[in-house]
C-alpha cells in the first residue's frame, strides 16, 4: 500500500510539472502570436498627424427627405493657437478632469482602461461601448488619426500610437494638439474658437470659471452644451472640474470659492442655415445618445425626421407674433407649441420658444422639454382614473367651499396653517354638479374631490401610463396635484393626450422616420410601437366631455377659441394659481396640439389661459386642421340606469322621498325641490370611494365625510331658508 502511495505522489508531481511547462510554453506562443498580430496591424504613420481625416457630415431633413433642416458640420470653425497663448486655467482644468496623471504616464493607463471596460460591461454594453479610460494622448490619436470604431483592434492601435507619440512629442505639444482639436459642441473645434464663440474673448484671457466650463464640454459636447436643455448638468460638471483642480493643487480654496460662485454669461449661439432649431437640436441629442458624438462627424448620416416643415414654418410665425403681443399686453414674453399625430406618435411640430436666437428671453432653451406646472390641464388624467374606477361623467359632487385637511375643522374655510380649502377660478360655487360639467368648466373644488375619490397613487399611475415621466415620487404630492401641483413637460402632455384621442392606445413619441449611413445602409427605420394603456370607454368619455361645447359654455362662452363648428375638437386649458404658466391642449382623432405661454424666469402673467394662450393655439389649429382628414370621436356607451343614483346624476337620496304608511306599504312623496334638498348628501354618504359600484356604506368612517358633509348641510339650510322666506 505504501509503495502505491509513493508512486502516486511521484507521478502527480511529474504531471503537475508537465502541466506548468505546457502552460508556460503556450503562454510564450500566445505572447509571440500577439506580437506577430500587432506587427501586422495597419498602423498609420505619425507623419500624417497634421492631415485631417475627411469628416462626413450628418444631415437632418424633414419628413419628405427633401427639406434640409441642418447640416451639422457645414460651418465647422477651428482656430489653431500655440500652447503659450492658452490660459493656464484651461490647461490645468483640462488635465484635472480628463487625465490627472497626464504629466506622469507614458501615454496609456492600463488600469484606467480596465476599469472603464468593466464599467461598460456592467452597463450592459461591450467592453469598448462607452467612453472612459483614455488618456489625453490617446484622445489626440483618436481625434486625429484613427477612425472611431469601438473595437479591440482600434484600442490596440490607439495604445501603441499613444506610446509612440509620447516619444516624439513633448507633453506640452500633445496637450496643445488636444486643446486645438477637441470638439466643444456643434461646429466649434479647438479651445480658441470655443473661447471666442462662448465668451467673446481669446483662449489666453478666459477666467478660471470660464476655463472650467470649457473643460467640461469635450466629454459630451452636445449634452453639456450651454445652449441645450441640460444647463443644470453643465453647472454640476463645471463645479466638478473646479473640485478636481482644487484636489490636485491647481487652485487655492479662495480661487475655488470665487470661481464656483461667478456668474458667467455665454454669448448668443451663432448657427446659420438652420431650420426648426429647437427640433434639430432635440434630434441631435437623440443621435448623440444613440450613436455617439463621433458618428455624427464621420458616418455621413442622413436623418429623415417626422417634422412637417410646412406646419412648422407656420407655427414658428404664429408663436412669435402672438408671444410678442402677449409680452406687451399680458406680461407673457415666451410661448411654445408642439403638435403630434396620435395615430402613430410622430412629432409634426416643435417650437421651443418664440425665437431660438432671442437672447433676452433665453430663446435657445426648449420650453417644450422643460418641467412646468400644468394647472388644470392635468385634470383629465384624474377624471380618467375616476372613470376607470367606476365613477361616470354623470356622477355628482357638490361644488361648495370645502375644507379638505382632516387636521382642520369642517367650518374652517382657509388654507392657512396646514389647512386646505381651494377656490374656483371665479370664487363662485355652484352646488351639485356632474363630473362632466365640472371638468368641462374646470371647477377646482369638484376636481379635488375627484382626485380623492380616484386616489392619488392611481392618478399618478394613470399619468405615467399615458407617458408622463416627471411624477417620480408620489409621496410628495397631495390633493393639489389635480390643480397642477406636479411639474410636467409640454411634449409629454401632448403625447399623453394622444392616448385620449386614440381611444386609449398610446404610441411612443417618435421624431425619426429613417437613418442611413453614407453608403445608404439603413441604420434605423421607424416602426410604430403602441400599447392599450386606457380602456377605450374611458378615453371616449374624456373626449366626449372635452369636446362638449354646451358643457363648457358657462365658463368659455358659446363661441370660444376652443369651439370649431362642424368639427370634433376636444380641448382643455390650464392656468397655475400664480399665473406663471398657461396651457391649452386640444385634439382631434388624428392631431394633438399643445401650447404654453409664460416667462422662462417664472414671472407671473396678468391674465389666465383663455386670453393669453388660447388665441395662439387657435391660430395654429386653423391652419393645421385643413391639412388633416375630418374625423369624429366615437360616442361612449351611455351610463347604466341600474347603478346608484348619485353615479348617474341624482344628487339627493331617493329613499328620503319614500315614507311608510300604517300598513307598512311605501308611499312616495312628490319629487319637488324642497324634498330633494332635504335628502341631499355628499357623495361619500352614498359610496365607498374604493368601491363606488358596491353597497352603500352602513357607517360613515371615511375621514373626509364630515368635511364634505358640513358644507352640504349649510347649503341645505340656506336653500330651505330661502324657500320658506322667498321674499328674502
Explain what you see:
The protein is of the alpha+beta class. Among the domains are: 2-40; 76-270, Penicillin binding protein transpeptidase fold, CATH 1.10.3810; 645-724, no CATH class. It is built from 24 helices and 20 strands. The strands form seven sheets. Strands 2-1-5-13-14 form a five-stranded mixed beta sheet, covered by helices on one side. A five-stranded antiparallel beta sheet has the order 7-6-18-17-16, sandwiched between helices. It is elongated. It starts with a helix and ends with a helix. The model is unreliable at 49-54 and 126-130 (pLDDT under 50).
Question: Any chance you could write out the topology, listing elements then pairs?
Answer:
Layout: H1 2-40, E1 59-61, E2 68-71, E3 77-78, H2 88-98, H3 110-122, H4 136-144, H5 152-168, H6 171-181, E4 188-189, H7 191-199, H8 208-216, H9 231-247, H10 253-261, H11 277-291, H12 293-298, E5 302-305, H13 309-330, E6 334-341, E7 346-351, E8 371-372, H14 379-389, E9 396-399, E10 431-434, H15 435-440, H16 444-454, H17 456-465, E11 488-489, H18 490-501, E12 505-507, E13 512-516, E14 522-525, E15 530-532, H19 536-546, H20 549-556, E16 570-575, E17 581-588, E18 591-598, H21 609-612, H22 614-624, E19 658-660, E20 666-668, H23 673-678, H24 705-724
Parallel strand pairs: 1-5, 3-4
Antiparallel strand pairs: 1-2, 5-13, 6-7, 6-18, 8-11, 9-10, 12-15, 13-14, 16-17, 17-18, 19-20
Helix pairs in contact: 2-8, 2-9, 4-5, 4-6, 8-9, 9-10, 13-22, 14-16, 14-17, 14-19
